[in-house]
């Protein structure tokens, strides 16, 4: 649950306002050449959707529990081939024939 009065929430709200003000200060020269629709689209994509997408991408697996990694079929096949090639190389270096 989000506590609106928590320090983290208050700092986030202040950072959001500061972020928007910085964007508005950077765009005065460009804003004269662009329509309001272009500016709204710019703010929607770069100032809102990209950061929200990053937060969602980073927090996707937060609710999962750690578990032992299951060995996939391709990993098992690779390990079997690798071990057999190591065994063959070891036997050849000793002068015996592989089975």
Unreliable residue stretches: none
* Pattern of helices and strands: HHHH
What portion of residues belong to β-strands?
Answer: under 5%
Tally of helical runs:
4
Q: From the alpha carbons, calculate the radius of gyration and give it in angstroms.
A: 28 Å
Q: Strand count, sense and closure of the main sheet?
A: none
What's the pLDDT, averaged over the residues?
Answer: 76
Helix content: 55-70%
Number of β-strand runs: 0
The assigned structural class equals mainly alpha
Spatial shape: elongated
How far apart are the first and last residues' alpha carbons, in Å?
63 Å
Task: Walk me through this protein's architecture.
With 99 residues, the chain is an all-alpha fold. It has a domain of 52 residues. The chain contains four helices and no strands. It is elongated and about 80 Å long.
Which key phrases capture this entry?
single chain; mainly alpha; elongated
Give the gist of this structure.
The chain has helices at 7-26, 28-31, 36-58, 73-94. It is mainly alpha-helical and 99 residues long.
Element layout with pairings:
Blueprint: H1 7-26, H2 28-31, H3 36-58, H4 73-94
């Amino acid at each position: 649950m989000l506590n609106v009065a928590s320090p983290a929430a208050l700092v986030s709200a202040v950072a959001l306002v500061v972020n928007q003000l910085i964007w508005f200060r950077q765009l005065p020269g460009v804003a004269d050449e662009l329509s309001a629709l272009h500016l709204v689209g710019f703010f929607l994509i770069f100032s809102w959707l990209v950061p929200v997408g990053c937060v969602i991408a980073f927090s996707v697996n937060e609710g999962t529990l750690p578990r032992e990694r299951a060995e996939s079929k391709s990993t098992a096949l690779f390990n079997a081939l690798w071990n057999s090639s190591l065994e063959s190389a070891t036997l050849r270096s000793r002068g015996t024939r592989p089975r």
